Amino acid sequence: MSSTLQERIAEVSRRIERACARSGRDSRDVHIIAVTKYVSLEATSAVLASGLVNIGENRWQVAESKWEALGHQGTWHFIGHLQTNKVKDVIGKFQYIHSLDRMSLAKELHRKAEAEGLDVNVFLQVNVSGEESKYGLSPDKVPDFLREISGLNHLKIIGLMTMAPNEEDPELTRPVFRGLRELRDKLNGMGLTPEPITELSMGMSNDFEVAIEEGATWVRLGTVLVGHEEGS
Ligand SMILES: *Cc1c(COP(=O)(O)O)cnc(C)c1O
């Protein structure tokens, strides 16, 4: 990339401000997760030095060396599909898990969190678009899932997460993001969680402005912000 990290942060921040202005939102309610899965330890270190604090990684194997070196400096978000046998690696290291999508994972996360005496912030991943290639609970299964996990008191269900289809025209992703917001509001109306679900983790490099207009509180930005190193 020819631009510097500082320039990209400034540009992304401007675009977030404008999306908030268009939709009457306060930009302080939109948090940036810098997705560092494509870049090196050095580049991840530069991201933290730039003042961004939220780091997103999608595989423990890729994140491990970065976390070992930099873990204490930031807040870590696990955004990828999480295998049950990897829970032991990420618990206590990643403060947020964005990809809870099945009961076996909920139980294992809870078991490990309880053993460590901590609570873990969790987003339920929802497959709003219905694409077969995507992980996530189908929207109609979410109420029962919340009822089933309600006894797992070390899991703090703070939000919902989704991924939109990869569209050339980001406007086409809008129904997916709107669907996640409407699901959140419906769930809150049903009162299935001790605290209302406030957070929406949605929007990536291609579509974050549309996601913000539809209520995103966490946008997960890799390519547009951190960049994408060749061969990684
Ligand atoms: C890689 C990834 C992102 C960031 O993707 P970009 O399009 O590069 O911004 C966001 N969310 C998830 C779940 C990812 O795996």
UniProtKB/TrEMBL annotation:
Named cofactor requirement(s): pyridoxal 5'-phosphate
Membrane-spanning intervals of the chain: none
All residue ranges annotated as the Alanine racemase N-terminal domain in the record: 29-228
GO molecular function, one term: pyridoxal phosphate binding
Top-level taxonomic group: Bacteria
Similarity annotation: Belongs to the pyridoxal phosphate-binding protein YggS/PROSC family.
Protein purpose: Pyridoxal 5'-phosphate (PLP)-binding protein, which is involved in PLP homeostasis.
Name of protein: Pyridoxal phosphate homeostasis protein
Annotated organism of origin: Paenibacillus durus
Lineage: Bacteria, Bacillati, Bacillota, Bacilli, Bacillales
